[in-house]
Amino acid sequence: MNYEQLIHEFKAKFSSEEARLFFAPGRINLIGEHTDYNGGNVFPCAITYGTYAVAKKRDDYLVRLYSVNFPNKNMIEFNLNDLDYKEKDGWANYPKGMLRYIRERGDDLTGMDVLFYGNIPNAAGLSSSASIELLTGVVIEKLNQLSIDRLELVKIGMRVENEFIGVKSGIMDQFAVGMGKKEEGILLDCQTLDYHYAPLKLGSKKVLIMNTNKRRELAASKYNERRNECEQALKQIQTAIDVLALGELSEEDFEQIKHTIKNPTVLKRAKHAVYENQRTIQALQALKNDDLSRFGELMNDSHTSLKEDYEVTGFELDTLVETAWKQDGVLGARMTGAGFGGCAIAIVEEKCVDNFIENVGTRYKEKVGYEADFYIASIGDGARELEMEVRI
Asked: Per-residue confidence at 391, pLDDT binned at 50, 70, 90?
């Protein structure tokens, strides 16, 4: 759906004379999975798939939201004086949470009419929820002529996810969506929030997103269970060493104190968190050295750990990744996101992309019974107002 179609749809729904256009990306995480809430490092980037909003400020306290992605559902309306979570509002609770917490800053907000459209596959693990959170934050900021530090907006987005929606995620998704830069990845220390950008010099290689098309509802998955297991491990480790997070441990540190973790399952979870964090640091160095082969090896090791130690991959993701490993021109492949379905990524030589998609797609359908979808990912900028104001 192009800009003109979105604006036409906005006019049809809201009978408005003018509107402004906004965009927030989805994200992929190249390496460093389930390390963010363990105080470790991640290496995500924003992608050019994402969520659009056409929006107009109102003169009252009424908020009206409509999603093109859910055409069979009615427009959702609520008042700024009633910003409680309501299950019946479904997806609109993400914008509602952003309104609630930004308003708690003391900002004087007015209502708004907003039409949303996203081209991120739902429940694919590409951060559609963080995309709509940061998108709404930028809409609120610009329509109300506020000045909100982008890192603060990122933290508000995470608060919506954690407290308003009830998913105990880390900050990586909101950070990548809010802070992304074109053709650059972000090395983020999730404990200190120190970060820096790293150019992604892929040359003739492409990043492919492979969608299992297995839906997963993050809040209902075992995501929170994994986080709780890591918290158990940390408490036991703290009886032997003074650390605030698993991400502070080196591989050598972990091997010396792992005996404090009595439950073998909890031990595996902690091992993944520690070793994956070190893989992320090594991956950044590989990129700095233009050693994409080493980067690919680390991606493969990451998936193996996510399968065997963290147990968040599953049949569908393993089928995609393990088939990808056997294809010509593949440097590395791994699941990305929380797991339990969703997407995997692969770095593939451009000349091999068509054969890769055909071979992996065919094998996946044979084994799983339905098709996977494939997307060539471009690395894009973070959440923003698009440089145009449209009068209808």
From this structure: very low
Q: Which of 36, 82, 84, 173 is catalytic?
A: 173
2-23 pLDDT, tens per residue? 888 999 999 999 988 789 999 9
- State which amino acid sits at residue 1: M
B/e letters for 313-342, b = 16+ CB within 10 Å, e = fewer, are bbebbbbbbbbbbebebbbbbbbbbbbbbb
Q: Which residues pair with 189 in a beta bridge?
A: 41
Half-sphere exposure of 223 (CA within 13 A, CB side): 23
Q: Are residues 222 and 362 in the same domain?
A: yes
Quote the pTM value: 0.87
Q: What is the CATH number of the domain that holds 32?
A: 3.30.230.10
Give yes or no: residues 355 and 284 share one domain: yes
- How far is C-alpha 184 from the geometric centre of its chain's CA atoms? 16
CATH value at residue 225: 3.30.70.890
- 357, 319: one domain: yes
Q: What is the DSSP letter of 379?
A: B
What sign does the dihedral 379-155-313-285 (CA atoms) show? positive
In this structure, the answer to whether residues 272 and 315 fall within a common structural domain is: yes
Tokens of 374: 């494939």
Residues 79 and 120 grouped into a single domain: yes
Mean pLDDT score, 277-294: 91
pLDDT in tens, 207-265: 999 999 987 655 456 888 999 999 999 999 999 999 999 999 999 999 999 999 999 99
Per the rule left: phi > 0, alpha: psi between -120 and 50, beta: everything else, 221 is: beta
| Backbone CA torsion sign across 48, 30, 37, 225 | positive
Report pLDDT for 389.
47
173 as an active site residue: the answer is: yes
Q: Are 351 and 315 in contact (CB under 8 A)?
A: no
CB 173 within 8 A of CB 129: yes
Q: State the sign of the Cα–Cα–Cα–Cα dihedral 138, 142, 145, 147.
A: positive
Q: Which residue range forms the structural domain that includes residue 325?
A: 202-377
CA-CA distance, 280 to 7, in Å (whole number)?
42
Per-residue pLDDT band at 123 (split at 50, 70, 90):
low
Tell me, yes or no, whether 36 and 185 share the same domain. Answer: yes
Name the one residue in this structure whose structure tokens are 């969520």: 51
